[in-house]
Predict the 3D structure of the following.
Amino acid sequence: MQRKIRVLVGKPGLDGHDRGAKVVAAALRDAGMEVIYTGLHQTPEQIVEAAVQEDVDLVALSILSGAHMTLFPEVLHLMRERRIGDRLLTGGGIVPAEDMQTLAQQGVGRLFGPGSSTQDIVHYIREWFAERHGAAALPPLPPPPAARALEFAGPSPRPASAAPRRAAASATSAPRKAAPRRPAPKRGATSARSAKAPPAPRRAAAKKSAASRPARARGKAARRG
């Protein structure tokens, strides 16, 4: 009988960086698994207790603090005490290859270092589950999230429908054109007229001053004589 794989993702110790754990948890969820995330700063006792209460198939630890040689063996020991030692204990973090081999000899599953592919993690968990429970119990992989989004969105609109919309837009926009306005009088003409008007009084004043000059000169000559 097929069923979902239940995974517990834990962050033990004082490690406060959980971005990688959340990325892995999202990838496992997209692969059809049921993921329980414990959160930051969990003790080994809290992680094992949550694994027992949730009845998970495996426990995945994310350790970036360098305490992997202490936390992995302790969690594995508590799992055996709580009679869930047959469940898979895996995880990842900054773990040297020598430490991975040492932990594997103690009973810890495969560990994944920085830069590991989430597809490799999914494949490893599914392969372990099929070996333990049989291939008939392994559920099929769901379609990728992008493919599911396209299925829910439905068929995309046809591009040919854009032509009638443009025609309708042009038909509706034709009556909205404003009526032509009457041409306004040119400002240059009024300014030219106003500029030509003042010189007339100036010319008249010049003529008067020219006409009055001989009269003044005659008056002066009469006074001298």
Notes: Residues 149-154, 189-195 have pLDDT under 50 and may be disordered. The beta strands are 6-10, 34-37, 58-63, 88-93, 111-112. The chain has nine helices and five strands.
